[in-house]
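Database export, one record per block. Field names are fixed; values are copied verbatim from the stored entry.
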Amino acid sequence: MKHNNIIPNIHFHKDWQRYVKTWFDQPAKKLARRRTRATRAAKLAPRPTDLLRPAVRCPTLKYNMRLRAGRGFSLDELKAAKVPRKQALSIGIPVDHRRKNRSQEGFQNNVARLKAYKSRLILFPLNPTAKRARAGDATKAEREKATQVKSVQDVLPIVNPKIRSKARVLTAREKNPNRSVVEVMHKARMDKRLKGQREKKAKEKKEGKMKKEKKAKAEEEVTGDE
């Protein structure tokens, strides 16, 4: 005991049993989730159970080298792939009107992803008994061959490319012990930072030189006339 504090006298009179959480129903919940997935798949058949998602980069500098599934395709991507925005969700393509394409490479990848999806898409008619089929509807033979795909990711997966540089022999410049990598990086940063100022100074110097030459030429002409 230290100092002049109250003597501890703990009484467990609170109804602590009410606050105890158990997880004994986990195996049953697992089975229920599986049955729910099977019921949903049977209800959606022969449509896939999920939607096609775009391949996007993770945010922040730490994770932006990794690709993941995004929320929906941008309006520019749908336009380039010739997918009507009002029809997109009805054929399993979600739309995110807030997304902006900041990378040309990512834009082209998602457009190619949409085109590959369209080439494999079997579109069932809204009215199977109609005598005249709509444009884009699958034929009867194609509909009979159609099988359900549990996940679109199985057919069009988002793969993170593994970029590995091959081993090579060091050059004489790289082997130079007097060459500091820190100095090289520092110089590159300074060159980038001072690029605008240096270009401005070079331009002013060139203009000043041209003015001097022009002035000297004018003075020579005046002297020659005299």
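Remark 1: The chain has two domains: 26-155, 198-226.
Remark 2: The chain has a mean pLDDT of 87.
End of record.
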